[in-house]
Design a protein that fits this description.
The chain is α/β, with parallel strands linked by helices and 349 residues long. It has two domains: 4-128 and 306-336, Rossmann fold; 131-304, Dihydrodipicolinate Reductase, domain 2 (2-Layer Sandwich), CATH 3.30.360. The chain is built from 15 helices and 16 strands. It has helices spanning 13-21, 36-46, 58-65, 82-92, 103-110, 113-119, 131-144, 164-173, 214-222, 235-241, 248-251, 254-265, 273-277, 304-320, 331-335, and strands spanning 4-8, 28-33, 50-52, 70-73, 95-98, 122-124, 150-158, 178-182, 185-189, 195-199, 204-209, 226-232, 280-288, 294-302, 327-328, 347-348. α5 (103-110) crosses α9. The longest helix is centred in the C-terminal third of the chain and has 17 residues, at 304-320. The termini are far apart.
Length: 349
Protein backbone atom coordinates (compact mmCIF):
# COMPACT_ATOMS: atom_id res chain seq x y z
CA UNK A 1 0.00 0.00 0.00
CA UNK A 2 1.22 3.48 -0.91
CA UNK A 3 0.44 4.85 2.56
CA UNK A 4 1.81 1.94 4.61
CA UNK A 5 5.08 1.79 6.54
CA UNK A 6 6.55 -0.43 9.23
CA UNK A 7 6.42 1.09 12.70
CA UNK A 8 8.85 -0.92 14.80
CA UNK A 9 8.52 -0.37 18.55
CA UNK A 10 4.81 0.44 18.20
CA UNK A 11 4.18 -0.81 21.74
CA UNK A 12 6.51 1.80 23.29
CA UNK A 13 5.23 5.07 24.70
CA UNK A 14 6.10 7.20 21.67
CA UNK A 15 5.35 4.35 19.26
CA UNK A 16 1.76 4.24 20.51
CA UNK A 17 1.39 8.00 20.03
CA UNK A 18 2.64 7.67 16.45
CA UNK A 19 0.31 4.73 15.74
CA UNK A 20 -2.73 6.56 17.10
CA UNK A 21 -1.97 9.76 15.15
CA UNK A 22 -1.10 8.09 11.83
CA UNK A 23 -4.62 8.25 10.37
CA UNK A 24 -4.47 12.07 10.69
CA UNK A 25 -1.77 11.94 8.01
CA UNK A 26 -3.68 9.34 5.95
CA UNK A 27 -1.03 6.75 6.79
CA UNK A 28 -1.46 3.14 7.87
CA UNK A 29 1.41 1.78 9.95
CA UNK A 30 2.17 -1.92 9.96
CA UNK A 31 2.70 -2.28 13.71
CA UNK A 32 5.70 -4.31 14.78
CA UNK A 33 7.60 -5.31 17.89
CA UNK A 34 9.04 -8.31 19.76
CA UNK A 35 6.03 -9.35 21.85
CA UNK A 36 2.56 -10.35 20.64
CA UNK A 37 1.26 -9.64 24.16
CA UNK A 38 1.98 -5.93 23.65
CA UNK A 39 1.52 -5.48 19.89
CA UNK A 40 -1.72 -7.40 19.25
CA UNK A 41 -3.91 -5.43 21.74
CA UNK A 42 -2.81 -2.15 20.13
CA UNK A 43 -3.40 -3.54 16.64
CA UNK A 44 -6.87 -4.72 17.67
CA UNK A 45 -7.67 -1.34 19.25
CA UNK A 46 -6.62 0.62 16.15
CA UNK A 47 -7.70 -2.05 13.65
CA UNK A 48 -4.24 -2.13 12.10
CA UNK A 49 -2.13 -5.02 10.79
CA UNK A 50 0.82 -6.19 12.84
CA UNK A 51 3.95 -8.36 12.73
CA UNK A 52 5.97 -9.91 15.56
CA UNK A 53 9.67 -9.49 14.76
CA UNK A 54 12.84 -10.34 16.62
CA UNK A 55 15.48 -7.85 15.46
CA UNK A 56 18.16 -10.49 15.88
CA UNK A 57 16.36 -12.73 13.39
CA UNK A 58 17.58 -11.21 10.12
CA UNK A 59 15.41 -13.41 7.88
CA UNK A 60 12.26 -12.60 9.85
CA UNK A 61 13.05 -8.89 9.82
CA UNK A 62 13.82 -8.79 6.09
CA UNK A 63 10.60 -10.66 5.30
CA UNK A 64 8.56 -8.01 7.13
CA UNK A 65 10.46 -5.16 5.47
CA UNK A 66 9.77 -6.63 2.03
CA UNK A 67 6.13 -5.60 2.54
CA UNK A 68 6.88 -1.86 2.87
CA UNK A 69 8.94 0.99 1.42
CA UNK A 70 9.78 2.66 4.74
CA UNK A 71 10.51 1.78 8.36
CA UNK A 72 9.99 4.22 11.23
CA UNK A 73 12.21 2.75 13.93
CA UNK A 74 10.90 3.70 17.38
CA UNK A 75 12.49 1.01 19.57
CA UNK A 76 15.36 2.14 21.74
CA UNK A 77 17.87 2.12 23.26
CA UNK A 78 19.19 2.44 19.71
CA UNK A 79 22.63 1.28 20.71
CA UNK A 80 20.97 -2.17 20.92
CA UNK A 81 18.63 -1.92 17.91
CA UNK A 82 19.79 0.49 15.19
CA UNK A 83 22.46 -1.65 13.55
CA UNK A 84 20.17 -4.63 12.94
CA UNK A 85 17.47 -2.40 11.46
CA UNK A 86 19.66 -0.32 9.14
CA UNK A 87 21.40 -3.42 7.78
CA UNK A 88 18.05 -5.08 7.09
CA UNK A 89 16.86 -1.90 5.34
CA UNK A 90 19.93 -1.97 3.10
CA UNK A 91 19.31 -5.63 2.26
CA UNK A 92 15.69 -4.93 1.29
CA UNK A 93 15.98 -1.41 -0.20
CA UNK A 94 13.73 0.17 2.44
CA UNK A 95 14.03 3.79 3.63
CA UNK A 96 15.09 4.19 7.29
CA UNK A 97 13.99 6.88 9.74
CA UNK A 98 14.11 6.86 13.55
CA UNK A 99 13.43 9.04 16.60
CA UNK A 100 16.89 8.59 18.11
CA UNK A 101 18.81 11.38 19.84
CA UNK A 102 22.16 9.68 20.58
CA UNK A 103 25.31 11.20 19.03
CA UNK A 104 26.96 7.80 18.63
CA UNK A 105 24.00 6.43 16.65
CA UNK A 106 23.96 9.41 14.27
CA UNK A 107 27.66 8.99 13.68
CA UNK A 108 27.28 5.23 13.17
CA UNK A 109 24.41 5.61 10.69
CA UNK A 110 26.32 8.29 8.78
CA UNK A 111 28.85 5.60 7.85
CA UNK A 112 26.14 3.87 5.79
CA UNK A 113 25.79 6.89 3.48
CA UNK A 114 27.49 5.30 0.46
CA UNK A 115 25.60 2.01 0.91
CA UNK A 116 22.29 3.87 1.17
CA UNK A 117 23.01 5.78 -2.04
CA UNK A 118 23.86 2.54 -3.80
CA UNK A 119 20.50 1.09 -2.69
CA UNK A 120 18.66 4.32 -3.63
CA UNK A 121 17.26 4.77 -0.12
CA UNK A 122 17.31 7.56 2.45
CA UNK A 123 18.65 7.15 5.98
CA UNK A 124 17.38 9.89 8.31
CA UNK A 125 17.74 9.37 12.06
CA UNK A 126 16.33 11.96 14.45
CA UNK A 127 12.92 12.73 12.92
CA UNK A 128 11.47 13.76 16.28
CA UNK A 129 12.20 16.10 19.18
CA UNK A 130 14.58 17.76 19.67
CA UNK A 131 16.42 17.25 16.38
CA UNK A 132 13.71 18.48 13.98
CA UNK A 133 13.25 21.92 15.61
CA UNK A 134 16.91 22.42 16.53
CA UNK A 135 18.08 21.35 13.07
CA UNK A 136 15.71 23.85 11.44
CA UNK A 137 16.85 26.67 13.73
CA UNK A 138 20.50 25.78 13.07
CA UNK A 139 20.02 25.99 9.30
CA UNK A 140 18.01 29.20 9.56
CA UNK A 141 20.78 30.84 11.58
CA UNK A 142 23.50 29.52 9.25
CA UNK A 143 21.63 30.99 6.27
CA UNK A 144 21.49 34.35 8.05
CA UNK A 145 25.17 34.22 9.04
CA UNK A 146 27.16 32.17 6.50
CA UNK A 147 30.44 32.85 8.36
CA UNK A 148 29.14 31.59 11.72
CA UNK A 149 31.96 30.07 13.81
CA UNK A 150 29.96 28.98 16.87
CA UNK A 151 26.44 27.55 17.19
CA UNK A 152 24.63 27.18 20.50
CA UNK A 153 21.35 25.25 20.65
CA UNK A 154 19.12 24.92 23.71
CA UNK A 155 15.78 23.30 24.43
CA UNK A 156 13.62 23.01 27.50
CA UNK A 157 10.36 21.39 28.48
CA UNK A 158 7.72 23.37 30.34
CA UNK A 159 5.74 20.71 32.20
CA UNK A 160 5.59 17.09 31.01
CA UNK A 161 8.03 14.32 31.87
CA UNK A 162 10.09 11.43 30.47
CA UNK A 163 8.94 8.17 28.92
CA UNK A 164 10.46 4.83 29.95
CA UNK A 165 12.40 4.66 26.70
CA UNK A 166 13.96 8.10 27.01
CA UNK A 167 14.76 7.62 30.69
CA UNK A 168 16.29 4.17 30.04
CA UNK A 169 18.47 5.56 27.25
CA UNK A 170 19.66 8.36 29.54
CA UNK A 171 20.31 5.87 32.35
CA UNK A 172 22.51 3.89 30.00
CA UNK A 173 24.67 6.98 29.49
CA UNK A 174 24.85 8.13 33.10
CA UNK A 175 28.38 8.74 34.33
CA UNK A 176 29.85 9.04 30.84
CA UNK A 177 30.14 12.82 30.70
CA UNK A 178 29.26 15.22 27.90
CA UNK A 179 30.43 16.28 24.44
CA UNK A 180 30.73 19.32 22.20
CA UNK A 181 31.92 19.98 18.66
CA UNK A 182 35.28 21.79 18.57
CA UNK A 183 36.99 22.70 15.30
CA UNK A 184 34.87 20.13 13.51
CA UNK A 185 35.65 17.26 15.92
CA UNK A 186 33.47 15.71 18.62
CA UNK A 187 35.29 16.27 21.91
CA UNK A 188 34.36 14.71 25.24
CA UNK A 189 33.68 17.17 28.06
CA UNK A 190 32.19 16.91 31.55
CA UNK A 191 28.39 16.81 31.59
CA UNK A 192 27.17 20.32 32.35
CA UNK A 193 30.58 21.86 31.72
CA UNK A 194 28.82 25.12 30.90
CA UNK A 195 25.60 26.65 32.19
CA UNK A 196 23.76 29.85 31.33
CA UNK A 197 20.41 31.60 31.45
CA UNK A 198 18.52 31.78 28.14
CA UNK A 199 15.63 34.09 27.30
CA UNK A 200 13.16 31.76 25.57
CA UNK A 201 10.78 34.65 24.95
CA UNK A 202 8.06 33.51 27.33
CA UNK A 203 10.50 33.12 30.23
CA UNK A 204 14.18 32.87 31.16
CA UNK A 205 15.39 29.38 31.96
CA UNK A 206 18.70 27.98 33.14
CA UNK A 207 20.32 25.50 30.73
CA UNK A 208 23.45 23.35 30.80
CA UNK A 209 25.53 21.55 28.18
CA UNK A 210 24.62 17.96 27.34
CA UNK A 211 25.93 15.39 24.81
CA UNK A 212 22.85 15.53 22.58
CA UNK A 213 22.35 14.49 18.97
CA UNK A 214 22.66 18.05 17.69
CA UNK A 215 26.43 17.82 18.15
CA UNK A 216 26.28 15.44 15.18
CA UNK A 217 23.25 16.56 13.17
CA UNK A 218 23.73 20.33 13.28
CA UNK A 219 27.30 19.91 12.02
CA UNK A 220 26.09 17.76 9.12
CA UNK A 221 23.39 20.32 8.28
CA UNK A 222 25.37 23.55 8.67
CA UNK A 223 29.08 22.74 8.61
CA UNK A 224 29.59 25.06 11.60
CA UNK A 225 32.78 23.86 13.29
CA UNK A 226 31.93 24.62 16.92
CA UNK A 227 28.61 23.50 18.40
CA UNK A 228 27.24 23.29 21.94
CA UNK A 229 23.90 21.72 22.93
CA UNK A 230 22.06 22.71 26.12
CA UNK A 231 18.93 21.61 27.95
CA UNK A 232 16.90 23.12 30.76
CA UNK A 233 18.08 22.19 34.23
CA UNK A 234 17.37 23.40 37.76
CA UNK A 235 20.36 25.47 38.93
CA UNK A 236 20.63 23.43 42.16
CA UNK A 237 20.89 20.19 40.15
CA UNK A 238 23.51 21.82 37.95
CA UNK A 239 25.60 22.68 41.01
CA UNK A 240 25.52 19.03 42.12
CA UNK A 241 26.49 17.83 38.64
CA UNK A 242 29.58 20.04 38.71
CA UNK A 243 30.92 17.56 41.30
CA UNK A 244 30.27 14.55 39.08
CA UNK A 245 33.94 13.91 38.36
CA UNK A 246 34.19 12.48 41.88
CA UNK A 247 31.51 9.80 41.40
CA UNK A 248 31.23 9.10 37.65
CA UNK A 249 33.07 5.79 38.17
CA UNK A 250 30.26 4.70 40.51
CA UNK A 251 27.47 5.82 38.15
CA UNK A 252 28.97 3.70 35.35
CA UNK A 253 28.70 0.47 37.35
CA UNK A 254 26.02 -2.09 36.39
CA UNK A 255 24.85 -2.12 40.01
CA UNK A 256 23.93 1.59 40.07
CA UNK A 257 22.51 1.59 36.52
CA UNK A 258 20.32 -1.41 37.32
CA UNK A 259 18.96 0.34 40.43
CA UNK A 260 18.07 3.37 38.29
CA UNK A 261 16.43 1.20 35.60
CA UNK A 262 14.30 -0.59 38.21
CA UNK A 263 13.08 2.77 39.48
CA UNK A 264 12.26 3.84 35.90
CA UNK A 265 10.27 0.65 35.27
CA UNK A 266 8.25 1.25 38.44
CA UNK A 267 7.00 4.59 37.09
CA UNK A 268 4.18 5.22 34.56
CA UNK A 269 5.16 4.59 30.90
CA UNK A 270 5.32 8.33 30.26
CA UNK A 271 3.43 11.61 30.73
CA UNK A 272 -0.36 11.31 30.81
CA UNK A 273 -2.48 12.81 28.02
CA UNK A 274 -3.36 15.72 30.32
CA UNK A 275 0.30 16.30 31.20
CA UNK A 276 1.25 16.44 27.52
CA UNK A 277 -1.69 18.69 26.71
CA UNK A 278 -0.63 21.13 29.44
CA UNK A 279 3.08 21.12 28.61
CA UNK A 280 5.13 22.61 25.79
CA UNK A 281 8.69 22.91 24.56
CA UNK A 282 10.86 25.90 23.74
CA UNK A 283 13.87 25.80 21.43
CA UNK A 284 16.55 28.49 21.06
CA UNK A 285 19.60 28.91 18.90
CA UNK A 286 22.41 31.45 18.56
CA UNK A 287 25.26 31.82 16.09
CA UNK A 288 28.28 34.08 16.36
CA UNK A 289 31.17 34.83 14.01
CA UNK A 290 34.83 35.72 14.49
CA UNK A 291 34.02 39.43 14.83
CA UNK A 292 31.63 38.76 17.70
CA UNK A 293 28.36 39.43 15.88
CA UNK A 294 25.46 37.30 17.16
CA UNK A 295 22.07 36.28 15.78
CA UNK A 296 19.49 34.25 17.70
CA UNK A 297 16.13 32.60 17.04
CA UNK A 298 13.51 30.96 19.23
CA UNK A 299 10.35 28.90 18.75
CA UNK A 300 7.74 27.26 20.93
CA UNK A 301 6.15 23.93 20.04
CA UNK A 302 4.24 20.95 21.36
CA UNK A 303 5.73 18.85 24.14
CA UNK A 304 8.52 16.60 22.88
CA UNK A 305 6.46 13.43 22.56
CA UNK A 306 3.52 15.01 20.72
CA UNK A 307 5.91 16.87 18.41
CA UNK A 308 7.79 13.63 17.70
CA UNK A 309 4.57 11.88 16.69
CA UNK A 310 3.68 14.71 14.29
CA UNK A 311 7.13 15.33 12.82
CA UNK A 312 7.92 11.64 12.27
CA UNK A 313 4.61 11.09 10.46
CA UNK A 314 5.05 14.28 8.44
CA UNK A 315 8.45 13.05 7.23
CA UNK A 316 7.15 9.52 6.64
CA UNK A 317 4.40 10.92 4.44
CA UNK A 318 6.88 12.97 2.42
CA UNK A 319 9.04 9.90 1.80
CA UNK A 320 6.11 7.70 0.80
CA UNK A 321 5.03 10.39 -1.65
CA UNK A 322 8.49 10.28 -3.25
CA UNK A 323 9.93 13.41 -1.63
CA UNK A 324 13.34 12.33 -0.33
CA UNK A 325 17.07 12.45 -1.05
CA UNK A 326 19.10 9.26 -1.14
CA UNK A 327 21.90 8.63 1.34
CA UNK A 328 22.33 9.86 4.90
CA UNK A 329 20.26 13.00 5.55
CA UNK A 330 19.26 15.34 8.36
CA UNK A 331 15.72 16.77 8.65
CA UNK A 332 16.54 20.38 7.76
CA UNK A 333 19.32 19.32 5.38
CA UNK A 334 16.75 17.46 3.30
CA UNK A 335 13.56 19.47 3.80
CA UNK A 336 14.81 22.97 4.60
CA UNK A 337 14.67 25.37 7.53
CA UNK A 338 10.87 25.76 7.32
CA UNK A 339 10.15 22.08 7.95
CA UNK A 340 9.39 22.75 11.61
CA UNK A 341 6.71 25.28 10.63
CA UNK A 342 4.79 22.44 8.95
CA UNK A 343 4.44 20.75 12.35
CA UNK A 344 1.20 21.78 14.12
CA UNK A 345 1.60 23.87 17.25
CA UNK A 346 4.88 25.55 16.23
CA UNK A 347 5.18 29.31 16.78
CA UNK A 348 8.03 31.73 16.21
CA UNK A 349 8.90 33.70 19.34
Amino acid sequence: MQNQFLLYGANGYTGKLIAKLASTYNLQPLLAGRSVAYIKPLADELQLPYRIIDLDNAAQLQKALSEVKLVLHAAGPYVNTAKQMIEACLQTGVHYIDINGDISIFEMLKKYNADAKEKNIMVMPGVGFDVVPTDCIALQLKNKMPDAALLKLAFASIGGGLSHGTATTMAGKIGEGGAVRENGKIVRKPLGQKGMWVNFGTKKLFVMTIPWGDISTAFTTTGILNIEAYTGMAPKVYRVLKLQWAFNWLLRTHFVRNIIKRKINARPAGPSDDQRKNSSSVVWGEVSNASGKKISACISCFDGYTLTAHSSLLIAKKILEGHFKIGYQTPAGCYGEDLIMEVPGTKII
